[in-house]
Amino acid sequence: MPRDRDLSAPGIPSTYVPARNTIMLSLALGWAEVLDARDLVIGVNALDYSGYPDCRPEFVEQFERLAAVATRAGVEGASFHIHTPLIALGKADIIRRGVALGLDYALTTSCYDPSPNGRPCGHCDSCALRAKGFAEAGLPDPLLLR
Fold first, then answer.
1. CB proximity list for 140: less than 8 A, separation 6 or greater
2. Could you tell me where the beta strands, DSSP code E, fall in 63-143?
3. Do residues 108 and 66 lie in contact, with contact meaning Cβ atoms separated by under 8 Å?
4. Phi and psi dihedrals of 130, rounded to 5?
5. What does pTM read for this prediction?
6. Is the CB of residue 143 less than 8 Å from the CB of residue 109?
7. How does pLDDT run across 47-61, given as a tens digit for each residue?
8. Which parts of 50-124 fold into alpha helices (H)?
9. CB-CB contact of 122 with 132 (8 Å)
10. Which of 56, 58, 57, 70 is nearest to 26 (CA)?
11. Which residues contact 1 (CB under 8 A, 6 or more apart)?
C-alpha cells in the first residue's frame, strides 16, 4: 500500500522485505570467502530508497564490520569491501546509466504485485519510485508498453 504517493513520507513502507539485503549480502559474503574474493557489489540506493533500512550507508558500513568478525578471512586480518555504485544516485540517474550500459529495462521489474503478464500494478511504492525515475529521465518505462 503506498503512503499516499508521498514517497518522502517517514516510516518503512509495506514493500519492505525483512532482512532482504542482509540475507543476500550474507550469501555473497560466504561465496566471496570461498572464492578468496574481498569485494562485494550491491545495488542499494539511499537517495530514493523509500525507507528501507538495509539500503542506507550505515547498513553497508556495519555489514563490512560484521564481515571482519564473522568470517575466517576477516578474523585472520583480511578485509571485505562492499561497493555501492548506485547508493548516491537518483532513480533517473540510475535509469540513464542502465540505458547507457545497454540494459533492457523490459527484463526488469520493481513491482511487488505485477499482473500475470508482468505489467506493474502501478500502486505500490516501488511502482511509484520506478515511474518517477523514468519520468525524470524522460524515458518511457518499457513495462508499460506491454
1. 134
2. 81-83
3. no
4. -65, -45
5. 0.82
6. yes
7. 765 678 999 999 999
8. 57-70, 72-75, 91-100
9. no
10. 70
11. 14, 123, 124
The structural domains of the chain, with segments of one domain joined by +, span 15-89, 90-146
Question: Both ends of the chain: CA-CA distance in Å?
Answer: 24
Q: Are 91 and 136 in contact (CB under 8 A)?
A: yes
DSSP reduced 3-state for 82? strand
Amino acid at position 95, single letter: I
Give dist(CA 6, CA 9) in Å, integer: 5
The CA distance from 43 to 25, in Å, is 11
Distances (CA, A) of 46 to 22, 51, 85, 102: 15, 9, 11, 24
100-112 burial code (b ≥16 CB/10 A, e <16): eeeeebeeeebbb
82 forms beta bridges with: 40
SS (H, E, C) 110-121: CCCCCCCCCCCC
63 Cβ contact partners less than 8 Å away, ≥ 6 residues apart: 22, 25, 82
**pLDDT tens by residue, 71-129:** 999 999 999 999 999 999 999 999 999 999 999 999 999 898 888 987 889 888 889 88
